[in-house]
Write a structure and sequence with these properties.
This protein has 98 residues and is α+β, with helices and mostly antiparallel strands. Helices cover 28% and strands 18% of the residues. The protein contains 3 helices and 4 strands; from the N terminus they run αβααβββ. The chain has a 4-stranded antiparallel beta sheet with strand order 1-4-3-2, with helices on one face.
Length: 98
Amino acid sequence: MPPHQPTIPKETSSDAMKSPQCYAIRPNERASEAVVRAVSSANATELQFDDPLYDHIDPDALDDLFRSHPGRQHNETAVHFDYRGYTVVVTADAVELR
């Protein structure tokens, strides 16, 4: 009898959906716009008005937090919130969907 070989579970499509997806925030793009673009891209659809971003986070506050201001650095700043089935993580230069 051959020795027992460990098995590695195959990745399912639902596992692939759980992999973090990262989207760079474009120059002159507001953080809130990048969130909407990222979620739309991840779902390959346009977002519907039945679940607007502002029901989950204040878009103006998010934009202000990551807006460039002279002398202010955002290296360690990250905002986490749930939106459209994702945990969204916004940093100064990217949006990550988990």
